[in-house]
Write a structure and sequence with these properties.
Layout: E1 2-15, E2 18-24, E3 28-31, E4 36-38, E5 41-48, E6 57-65, E7 70-79, E8 93-100, E9 103-105, E10 109-117, E11 120-131
Parallel strand pairs: 3-11
Antiparallel strand pairs: 1-2, 1-5, 4-9, 5-8, 6-7, 6-10, 10-11
Amino acid sequence: MKLDYLLLADKAEAINGKLYVLGGAIGAVGLIQIPGPAQFDVAVGLLVDYAETSDTHRLTLAMETADNEKVLGPVEIPFATGRPPGLPPGDSMPFTVVIQGPFPIPTEGAFQWAIEVDGLRHEPRHFRVSKITPLTPSAT
């Protein structure tokens, strides 16, 4: 099994095997209030090897600090792709899932989404959270 992508987006949905994304590939989140909720979605795409398409798998996601301390989760998602008729041996099947926010942010700093598939940890997706000042309309 291969991790194809893990991305943060303003909005994402997985429908009928397709990923719909608005404002994708976020690397930084700005919040007016910290601690507070951050509104973004997490999209994950996996490529399931041909030999694994008939098996049930377990995807686990957790939001962590940069020091691998859990902030949220883990969220466990069991899944199976099945093998459609005519899939040539050696081909893989895509699996797409979206976890929708908001997500609790305890402090400013560096965070990551950790992903495990069947107990094997993949490279986490890093993002940074900063406090921002809201824009106020200027008097004219």
